[in-house]
Amino acid sequence: MRFTILLYLQVVLLVSHISSELPKIIKVCPRSSSDLNKCIIESIELLRPHITIGDLGDNFTVPKLEPLSIDEIIIDNGNDLEANFKNLSVFGPSKFNVLNLNTNITQMQFDFDLELPSLEFFGDYSIVLNILIKFRGKGKLKGLFKNCKTHVKANAKIIDEQNHMEFTLDVKMKVSYAQFELQNLFDNDSFLSKLGNRIINDNYEIFLNELKPGLEKSLGKIFSNIVNNILKNSTYDEMFPE
Ligand SMILES: *[C@@H]1O[C@H](CO)[C@@H](O)[C@H](O)[C@H]1NC(C)=O
Ligand SMILES: *[C@@H]1O[C@H](CO)[C@@H](O)[C@H](O)[C@H]1NC(C)=O
Ligand SMILES: *[C@@H]1O[C@H](CO)[C@@H](O)[C@H](O)[C@H]1NC(C)=O
Ligand SMILES: *[C@@H]1O[C@H](CO)[C@@H](O)[C@H](O)[C@H]1NC(C)=O
Ligand SMILES: *[C@@H]1O[C@H](CO)[C@@H](O)[C@H](O)[C@H]1NC(C)=O
Fold first, then answer.
1. What is the CA(157)–ligand 2 centre distance, in A?
2. Would you give the end-to-end CA distance of the chain in angstroms?
3. Domain residue limits at 217
4. Which of 34, 111, 131, 207 would be 102's cystine partner, CB 3.0–4.6 Å?
5. What's the total number of domains in the chain?
6. Which tens digits make up the pLDDT trace of 120-175?
7. For the CA of 59, the nearest atom of ligand 1
8. Gene3D superfamilies under this entry (predicted)?
């Protein structure tokens, strides 16, 4: 009898310990839920204010979304573009909208559109770009993307015996308007620098297309890190109980 009680206690303690790893603010979505997509969207909505400031409660902190800090984005297409963006602060990511979520829970696949009305960014850049003319520069960068629509395919896989998950996000993006200010283009020649910026901004679609493949790859990694950080102590069974 005593043994049974002890065992029972141990099991209870173990279970409550495990489930305490899931941040309290994460809304659980039963696998069999008739509208799993709706449940997940509600869960994300509840998370928004917490991930915006990077505080998930119970001393669980993650990098904040507003502004989002990006250490480095390196883009080298092996041809006409070599760019390095460093120490970026991005304003606007917390204003995301999740649309058209399509979940296949048995495959652990989540497809959705992520809309970002406006992203404003500041940081350091260096670039050598050989389209239209040869651009070369290194200095401070300011920029604005408006009306970004991304399509995200997220795949999760179980990575250990406790059923912790790891997400890989694949991002395709479309930006309807962009504006850049690259200081010190052409080694501080202010005339060429102004001209270069004008050419870039008058032809932002061409520049975006050039940057896009590298940017999408980097965003995929950044988005994956964000999701994996938030869910690092959550298991599949806790998130999506039977
Ligand atoms: C958070 O951390 C502080 C300082 O380490 C501690 O006093 C407090 O009890 C912790 N709170 C929770 C909910 O774990
Ligand atoms: C997450 O899990 C790790 C290892 O189990 C543990 O060391 C860490 O304290 C947990 N973090 C939170 C925020 O629960
Ligand atoms: C990164 O940028 C911030 C301002 O946006 C600045 O305060 C900080 O010193 C920069 N860090 C590095 C390593 O350049
Ligand atoms: C999930 O994907 C599998 C394999 O592609 C498919 O057989 C199944 O019907 C899908 N389930 C839903 C709910 O879409
Ligand atoms: C361009 O200006 C920056 C600071 O404004 C300076 O650090 C750099 O040495 C200058 N480059 C040249 C080639 O003059």
1. 19
2. 31
3. 27-239
4. 111
5. 1
6. 999 999 999 998 788 999 999 999 999 999 999 999 999 999 999 999 999 999 99
7. 1
8. Haemolymph juvenile hormone binding protein
